[in-house]
């Protein structure tokens, strides 16, 4: 009666067979179990057992052992030749889809209109020169998008982030400053204390996570002033433009207000009461950091090394009122 042969399981075709083949090739190339054991950082007896298991499974002798040397059988020679090529092909395949390979393919990036144009656009040229195999798909919108639904790989977002399944990589941070146009201040006066803000139009944010107050430090104590009835927008560039047009006071990031402050189109207010809080910007993505496509990781690494907000951390003394 013939003994029925069980079909090999998927598990038998998995990592164990790869380890067996890799170990055998290392033994054959190194010429000893001890040398292969040092490469694998295991004991020689462990290597011997792996090779013996491979021989048992194949039903052939691969090595002839003596006290002085190892010699390949004909079957061992065949397995070494084809196994070496198989391992090389596998490593080449891994390299093409992991961080070892050159980044190629499409990376979709989402950002607000102001952040996209001011921060991201200047970096696109250098990024494409660094990784010419990349294709970038940029979407600038003032709505917070769902990365999965929008098929976006990376989103650039300001402010503290809510808890979610997304992963965030901090790119930098910027100081906050209250500003107004010279025309507005001439018409309505310059507030000298946070208590005077009630008599001024304040431009705020209209997105759901917007903080409904402005923070200050008065006599060493943290205080807040409610926004009240204000003009609301959802974009930093629009807020800066409204402030420059004399529509009201705005609390902007120094990053967004930098050029206008230097040009005199905006002036800083209430700096003696500024709490010095910093607003972060993150590159947000979905997935585990160690398992990202090489193209996505390449863009994240480039942004982390090239986004420079160091100038936006401290107000230059020359731009402070009465301290020029």
Describe this structure in words.
- The protein is of the alpha/beta class.
- The protein folds into 2 domains: 81 residues, Winged helix-like DNA-binding domain superfamily/Winged helix DNA-binding domain (Arc Repressor Mutant, subunit A), CATH 1.10.10.10; 208 residues, D-Maltodextrin-Binding Protein, domain 2 (3-Layer(aba) Sandwich), CATH 3.40.190.290.
- Helices cover 37% and strands 23% of the residues.
- The chain has 9 helices and 13 strands.
- It is elongated.
- The N terminus is likely disordered.
Write the layout of secondary structure elements.
Layout: H1 15-30, H2 33-40, H3 44-58, E1 63-65, E2 70-72, H4 74-97, E3 105-111, H5 113-130, E4 134-140, E5 154-158, E6 166-180, H6 182-188, E7 202-205, E8 213-218, E9 221-226, E10 231-233, H7 236-244, E11 249-253, H8 254-263, E12 267-269, E13 278-286, H9 294-306
Parallel strand pairs: 3-4, 3-5, 7-10, 7-11
Antiparallel strand pairs: 1-2, 5-13, 6-11, 6-12, 6-13, 8-9
Helix pairs in contact: 1-2, 1-3, 1-4, 2-3
Approximately how much beta-strand content do the residues carry?
A: 15-25%
Please, how many domains?
2
Globular, elongated, flat, extended or rod-shaped: what is the shape? elongated
Q: What is the subunit organization of this protein?
A: single chain
Tell me about the largest β-sheet.
9 strands, mixed
GO molecular function: DNA-binding transcription factor activity; sequence-specific DNA binding
Domain HTH lysR-type: 21-73
InterPro entries: LysR-type_TF_proteobact-type, LysR_HTH_N, LysR_subst-bd, WH-like_DNA-bd_sf, WH_DNA-bd_sf
Protein name: D-malate degradation protein R
């Amino acid at each position: 009666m013939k003994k029925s042969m069980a079909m090999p399981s998927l598990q038998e075709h998995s990592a164990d067979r790869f380890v067996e083949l890799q170990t055998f090739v290392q033994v054959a190339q190194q010429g000893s179990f001890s040398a292969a054991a040092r490469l694998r950082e295991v004991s020689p007896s462990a290597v011997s057992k792996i090779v013996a298991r491979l021989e048992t499974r194949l039903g052939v002798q691969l090595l002839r052992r003596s006290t002085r040397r190892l010699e390949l059988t004909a079957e061992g020679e065949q397995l070494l030749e084809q196994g070496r090529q198989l391992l090389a092909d596998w490593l080449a395949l891994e390299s093409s889809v992991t961080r070892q390979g050159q980044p190629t393919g499409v990376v979709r990036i989402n950002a607000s209109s102001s952040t996209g144009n001011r921060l991201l656009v200047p970096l696109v040229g250098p990024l494409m020169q660094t990784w010419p195999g990349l294709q970038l798909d940029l979407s600038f919108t003032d709505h917070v998008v769902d990365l999965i639904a929008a098929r976006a790989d990376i989103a650039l977002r300001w402010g503290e982030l809510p808890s979610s399944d997304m992963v965030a990589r901090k790119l930098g941070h910027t100081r906050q400053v209250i500003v107004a146009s010279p025309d507005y201040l001439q018409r309505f006066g310059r507030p000298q204390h946070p208590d005077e803000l009630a008599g001024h139009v304040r431009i705020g944010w209209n997105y759901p996570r917007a903080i409904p107050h402005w923070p200050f430090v008065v006599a060493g104590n943290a205080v807040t002033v409610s926004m009240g009835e204000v003009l609301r927008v959802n974009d930093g560039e629009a807020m800066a433009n409204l402030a420059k047009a004399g529509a009201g006071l705005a609390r902007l990031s120094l990053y967004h207000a930098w050029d206008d402050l230097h040009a005199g189109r905006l002036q800083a207010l209430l700096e003696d009461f500024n709490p010095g809080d910093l607003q972060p910007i993150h590159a947000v993505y979905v997935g585990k950091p160690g398992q990202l496509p090489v193209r996505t990781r390449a863009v994240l690494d480039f942004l982390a090394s090239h986004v420079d907000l160091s100038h936006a951390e401290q107000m230059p003394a020359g731009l402070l009122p009465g301290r020029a």
